[in-house]
Amino acid sequence: MADAIAAGKDLQSIPALLARNVQRFGGLPAYREKEFGIWQSWTWAEANEEIRAMAMGFLSVGVERGDHIAIIGRNRPRHYWAMVAAQMCGAVPVPLYQDAVAEEMAYVLEHCGARFVVCGDQEQVDKVVEIEDRIQSIQHVLYTDRRGMRKYDHSRMNALEDIQAEGRAGHYRFEAEIEARIAELDYDSTCVMLYTSGTTGKPKGVVLSNRNIIETAKNSAEFDHLAQGEEVLAYLPMAWVGDFIFSVGQAMWSGFTVNCPESAATMMTDLREIGPTYFFAPPRVFEGQLTQVMIRMEDAGDLKHGLFKYFMDFAKTKGETYGMPKLRTKRSKPTLRRRVRWAYRFMMGIGFAIETLVENAIRLALVKLRHPIHTREHFKARGPLLNIYPQPLRDYFTYRTGEVLVYGPLKNTLGLSRIRVAYTAGEAIGPEIFDFYRSLGINLKQLYGQTEASVFITQQPDGEVRSDTVGVPSPGVELKIGDNGEVYYRSPGTFVEYYNNPDSTASTKDPEGWVATGDAGFFEEGSGHLRIIDRAKDVGKLADGRLFAPKYVENKLKFYPNILEAVVFGANKDRCTAFINIDLNAVGNWAERNNIAYASYQELAGHPRVYDMIRKHVEEVNESVAQDPMLSGCQIHRFLILHKELDADDGEMTRTRKVRRNIVAEKFADLIEALYDGRDSIYTETEVTYEDGRKGSIKATLSIADARVFGETTKTPEAAE
Amino acid sequence: MNDMTDGYMTADGRKIGGVVMELKNITLKFGGVTAISDISFDIREGEIRAIIGPNGAGKSSMLNVISGFYIPTEGEVWYRGARRPQMRPYKVAQMGIARTFQNIALFDGMSVLDNIMTGRLTKMKKGLFAQAGWWFTGAAKEEDEHRAKVEKIIDFLEIQNIRKTPVGRLPYGLKKRVELARALAAEPSILLLDEPMAGMNVEEKEDMCRFILDVNDEFGTTTVLIEHDMGVVMDLSDRVVVMDYGRKIGDGPPDEVRNNQDVIDAYLGVAHD
Description:
Chain A is an alpha/beta fold.
């Protein structure tokens, strides 16, 4: 048995991987969760015991093979266990977005015919109870957090812990059954069912088999040399395929530790405390962190500000060369050698700083002797006195000093000190943001993927990382570009089918297994890296036939910290216009510094000086878009700043925070009309949905601004009006 | 009021017990000013009892009488079937009465966690010398036990993310919540809230209402609250006492009080014709 396990045979399901991990890493931590202010941890052996108890508990309430068990809640070990326990019973776990409103949940629960629902807390239970009488399939509700649950009708409801206790009590009764069901699992049985975020239309249930998940986890773990010693922070929505791959697939394959934060609000503190070695975040997290850093640096004193500026400028050019940690292919361990090396580097950093100061002091004294009057000018005019080091060595020393004074403390504050591999995906990331993190010596890379591929389609290998490509095909993935520029892939991770939706399955996946991504892209000559331009169906034409790629322009806009979201319109129109969402953090801080008083988001968004600032950004984007003759038609002629943030609760965005272009266009049709008919302000009323599902409305008068466009001879904004 | 037997269930399934505190003919005078004149009412185990009234009606004075800070000029306070003698406020606190204040009375420079820990003071047994001994005298162990209780409350009130933040840096609504947490840390049997929702925005108010109901539901804490927001009072409380110029002008369930002519007059004013 042990040999077979070592050879990787029989590892055809998550429960089998769990058994291997118990055997190999039994005493090492598998899960941690911060609760009551302390990190509580479970070893692989303990987790296994809990999961088995839960699985047997599921049997006691009548879970059958092929049942769907919906899981709604924040990232907690118990919810991950519930997924594995479901698999042990031969059932299919279906994680759902916990911030979805009851209506959205009803659709998914009805579609998959879930018989059991695991809820995180009272809030989720309330939603399920609200829709329960409409959905016949739901038989039993389980919940994790007991708070506020006492008064509910418990005839078809249980605490997860009680179910576990029942499972433990019924140990002798269920043991054989569980073993039998685990033994039935193979590569072709369903591992998990995940619902797409539904950028267009209703969400679809993507069925992923054990082959998809385990093969993908294996390939990607080998690609980045992930091993048992990694630490990850599981904070992304459980319903998202990325979280499933990282926190279940790869964690089970490599046996590393999954850490769950205390609550969504403490995520940043928990990140610091854990110091993950492997980290995944969508670009907005990195953007948010960078914005925070910049805002706080504004408040710092002159010395700190100066140091920060000097060393960050230095890192911009040299960070990539001197900062990137050597690629470790083995498990990271704080060996004595590593500690000595770290101490040596630290001392070298301080030593060089002192050396530089002393050297400059001596030189200043010497210059003063010769030029008692214009000392400063002469001091500045000459290079270093002891130019004994060659430039690269000097740079190396400077970087070490920066590491001690700026980069190290900064990484520590961000919780990224121990990062070995970090990934960003989901959206394009701004080159400045990307370079900022890489220049600090954080190995941030991009990957491109989607639910249907079990995440990985392309990723960037170490040493070939750039902000404008998404990398080379992941191991085992084949890629081709269709006639219309659309990217197709085929891989072991390719999904089995859309649940109960053969039409969609057929239209997405052809008989040979090629799947259309829906994104247009091309391979870069020379490097072979894939570059993504835009959603294939969003790429359109302007009225005069020029190319219209809204995402391309929106991304350029969103790279400004002041702009949170942008939506560009122009398909089949004579020119492009845009909606802008300001970032309340960044713009609010700017307003504070410039003595601009505002009472609400709406008021700030409508402020003339905010408009001026955004106009500048838009014009800069226009200038850079104009550089590309193919896309020069995408320059923005007119824009307005929206009076509300685009929100998933209002259906304007998906739960993964991607803009639903057509819904926005439909909802704000009056505003778009105003953008094109030359008015300079418009009154509008917008319906908003609060978190608890109630409706309200916002009334506002929005002004519309013109922006300068570049290099266009055919049409100018004045002529258009 | 000795009988603890005539309890009943509320419509939403909470159990209300017998009378836990009775105030009999309370009169409070400051020199020539009569703040409270001859007021009697009772508080039942597990209920949310509201005291309302226009400004200067004597609500806060009433609360201070309950908490033992003021000694009534006339009248008696009966607590758990026995007449409460005149005693120091800290003795009253030890008997299980905790309160929050109208204007926040937290230690600004201390962290949220430390502030809530001060709520455990009445429960701490180790003295000064034992504290100095720390590990050897078991003070460290005692501290851990108290910390565990406090962490439960932090978890309950969902303030994990500000655990280590100095109170002075928090917004008003959160300070109020921290104050509630500190009062809860004393594990009171009667919780006195002096205008817990004053000056809050709608969202903060809703949160606070939720927490007051949850506290009552989860710990079965008897709650006495003073509040101006009529909507809040009517939704939250089981029984309401209405005061005006130191007199009691109404007492009963919210619906009854709402239709009481005296109460309407006191709040809306009477036409002088």
